[in-house]
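Revision sheet: structure tokens.
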Amino acid sequence: MRSLTRPALLAAGWAAAAALVLVAPGNLVMRLAFGKLDDPALARQSLCAALGVLLALAAVRFGTRTAARPHRRRADGTVRPALWARAATWTAAVLPVLGFSVPHLLWGLGLPLGVAEGSRAGLAGLGGSAVFWVLLVAGPVGGGLLTLGLIARWGQIVPRWVPLAGGRRVPRALAAVPAAAVGMLVGQYGAMMTSCLAFGVTRGCAPGGGAEVLDGSWGFAGTYPVFLLWGTSLLTAAAGYLDTTARAPVSGSFSGSFSGSFSGS
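Predicted:
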């Protein structure tokens, strides 16, 4: 029975943290995005998100301190992430490319994949310039490459060829905080809109209207679950990075060569 205590506590902690960070804040992201800072619900929503973050950090610390096996250390002094951290990071890197960049690339090329006949006019509202479409497609790709740093050697120690900082440890907050922040933003938005889709109340969730473009268009509607899964996996990847770097040396730089600094594991 004791062997089940640790995974049960971790599962309960992560489930509660996910609920507080992604579900309980409701439309916190939309409130912030549309500048509704005077809404009385903002304080409660922000408090839920903050409690969720604290609980997630507590779960990471508990998991690190009670782990049965230490992480394997590489020859250059960096730490190899656990399998779950690598899986979450790869998911967070690949999912937005396949679920967002690829559909938008097709739409930008004039191929209305997953867009109903009556909603194809909505594609024109996404932007008319080639630069806009390139940024829309390239953004998740660039973000995915940065996400892989959460499991790569160069996410723990700056490559030797970087002036001044080469060979030094990457500050944990520099990698974990942006990943967690983006994960919360896209995850909350995805959770809210996916719930709206599931209960058929999308028009009530979309500020300023515009939800009519979703009618019969699974390509548009499918981006909301992608945001939810992307945010969840990115938050898990950030937790994995904290778990990995908690076992790394505390010195400012590592001895030895830093060959293959851009390989993932």
